[in-house]
Amino acid sequence: MEICSVGGYSEVGKNMTAISYNGEAVILDMGFHLPALIDFEEAGGDRRNITRKGLIQMGAIPNDSVISSWKNKVKAIALGHCHLDHIGAVPYLSKNYNCGLYGSPYTMEVLKWMLRDDRQKVVNEMYVNNLNSIRRISKDISIEFIGMTHSTPQTTMMAIHTKGGTILYANDFKFDSYPVLGNKPNYKRLRELGNENVVALIVDSLYAGLDQKTPSEKVAREMLKEVLLGTDNSNNAIFVTCFASHLARIKSIIDFGERLGRRIVFLGRSLKKYSLAAENIGLVNFSKRADIKGYRGQARRMLREVEKNRKDYLVVCTGGQGEPGAILTSISEGQLPFKFKEEDHVIFSNKVIPAAINKENRANLESGLKKKHARIFKDIHTSGHAAREDLRDLIKLTKPEHLIPAHGEQQMLRNLKELALEMGYEDKKVHVMKDGQKIKI
User: Fold this and answer.
1) What is the mean pLDDT of residues 146-164?
2) Does 87 share its domain with 201?
């Protein structure tokens, strides 16, 4: 069994791992490195006009040339969930492989929306897989999609079953036993795998150095409730921003906005994309509870209405990272027809993705809002990623022979190795890899 850390082992994002067994291979995830992409687009670039080679050179997508010798034996590309750092590179890389694309219903629906939005195509057949189902890929390999919680619906851990044992790909996840939307993690199946033969666990290391258990989404819901229902906002505009794919968070915002008696408005293309993708497969019914405006012209008209009747609306919009062109950023910079007044409420129900460009953009946005004397409520949020104690529990449940830290910078990966050694693993059983390396097990 051979494992290649194609991307996501030297940085946060750009996730892609390949596994070879008995003359066949599978690829897990094909993601963007979002900071590199943001740098490029801020400089005026358009990714629709750049080649695969150009994206690889700028570090925006994984360099899959490291598995060029495996090209003809790849039997499947499996996607763990719908975030862009896991599926964004699919239109640029998947065409190199003569195989199908596999993922949960929501993951595949978002992929279709993304392709339409970016005017991209894939030649690979797409296969939808229900949560907690097993897909036979070949005589020797099957992929199990184990239902998991994260910051977007229908996230899965993927178990690659072979005659030589199972490799479990746990990238990204949190253990949330009280989710706001969807089911709790399939602990029963993880426990069963632990009694079988998990040869290797490839696992999210982003917060392996954080000594806690990641709080449930119910905690973020209570934080939102406290800000929205427990703070006087009767005469003020209310703007809330969060990750557009975080449907559980958006559900809570709608719930409390309705209790305030406000009309709910969504502004931004990504909010429309993720919400309507979920409606297409019956996960939510946001369009019956909110006015969804995805296009710039629609947003302009809506904001003029909100400006006139600011205390009647709650606006959910894009721009939590302070990214250029997003709705909240554009309002702050005077590019859209709404002016914040003293004590208007701006609620950031997200954290800044830890990259220099994001931190700078968000700081600029906050500075602009403070000059307008808006009230800022930050970090009304709980993470979608496992912290150290969740990771400890996963290792105890699944009892892997080998551990491969993934999804993080090198120090994050080393933090997970420290945990494994603390739990009694031998040094030779924990493999801290970098992008483009291979190991045989």
Assistant:
1) 97
2) yes
